[in-house]
Each structure stands twice: as structure tokens, then as C-alpha cells.
Amino acid sequence: MQLEDYFEFLDPDDIPIKGHRIGIDDVINWFVVSAKRAKALTTNKRII
Question: Pick from 10, 43, 5, 47: which is nearest to 25 by CA?
Fold first, then answer.
């Protein structure tokens, strides 16, 4: 398994997933935002 099998290395800042327009940075950002939302949901204990 090589990274080149899954990613196209166009530039140091532009690494899309092969066959898609989405980049690795988009995937990482999605996971970071999702983790922040999950943490906010578990720590926010306000009752409406």
C-alpha cells in the first residue's frame, strides 16, 4: 500500500483523493469539526 495509490500529489498544499475533487484537508477538517461538535454536545448540559 502506497500513498500514491490513494492520493494525487499535485502541490504540497493540494492533495486530492484519487478520483474525487475532495482533498485530504477537507477530510481532516470534517473530522476536527465533528469532534468539536461532539465535545460541545457532551459538555453543554443546559436544560431548555
Answer: 10
